[in-house]
Amino acid sequence: MKLTNYLGFTEKDWIELLEECGAKRFHASQIMKWIHHRFIKDFSEMSDIGKEFRDYLVEKGTLLEPKVRAEFVSKDGTRKWLIQSFSGSLFELVYIPEQDRGTLCVSSQVGCVLDCDFCSTGKQGFSNNLTSAEIVGQIRIAIRKLSEIYPRRKRNVTNVVFMGMGEPLLNLDNILPALDLIRSDLGYGISKRKVTVSTAGIVPAIKSLAENADVSLAVSLHAPNDELRDQLMPVNKKYPLADLLEACREYAKKFSDKRPIFVEYTLLKGINDNFDNAKELCSILRDLPCKINLIPFNSFPGSAFKQPSSRRVREFQSILVEKGYSVTVRTTRGSDIQAACGQLVGRVSDRTNRQAKYGEISLVNEKYFK
Length: 370
What we know:
This protein has helices at 11-20, 27-36, 51-60, 132-149, 172-183, 203-212, 226-232, 241-254, 275-284, 310-322, 354-358, and strands spanning 4-5, 61-62, 67-73, 79-84, 90-97, 102-105, 109-111, 126-129, 159-162, 195-199, 216-220, 261-267, 290-296, 326-329. It is α/β, with parallel strands linked by helices.
């Protein structure tokens, strides 16, 4: 008999289960606090829950976390954990400490279905979606380990971003309950403004996310026109910029607190970093409430892309700022342990044959460098 992993159960799920078993629904809050606040690993530890229901949970379910196989620490304090999924493949989880916050970058898939040219994860191919228990398990693992490393800090994880391995919006069935638990006071109590889901542009799922979760949205744009984006990000051929930006506008209208859309733009030397690109970006974003995050490319083995000079990054930023946009340049963190944006790889049992195509993440982008 396959056991149910209750790590991914929301308050609604617990109430339904309790009522099915003839138990009182108020036990849902007690059970969730045991699991997500006290990090129990065995239901027998829940001393204020009746033995009959505890025995039922022991018989029917588990609180199994994915296993940490390795930990890497960067010279800048960034931490990366290599984690084994229930499928046996490996994925990665990253923690980025800053003076006033700690950001946890979680994965949603083992590998990635998409094949963006400048991203190392995509070159690994795709194995499977992570379950809600595996996603929530990442939060538990990080909070528990960080409390041992920084015991005097009141809260080590203040922000959660779905910017690790995978395309989150292609795994909505598991992302949505995880988001519920991350934001719930009975779960991890992280503010909706500090939980961000990033997407390469799965338009129908952006609409579903708006209807089912109140979180911040980040869009990986990386090009200011369809011609270039088609080359860099094949998903654009199915969901072109006009449709994507319209979905973003609708998402922004959905919430009353004037939350901006975060636009992510990786700068690739000689590809998308010229002044015309910057002006075109200003034009297509002109009626979208947004903040732009410029990301100087982080290299990975086999990639022919290069990072533009600091001067070119500043010049690109200046053009956007002059047009009234709020623009930040992301500081590269954890690059010495391959934990920076676009560098995560894990070890994937590829179902797409993409690994064979790219070898050991070897990639020659001849179409750009002729």
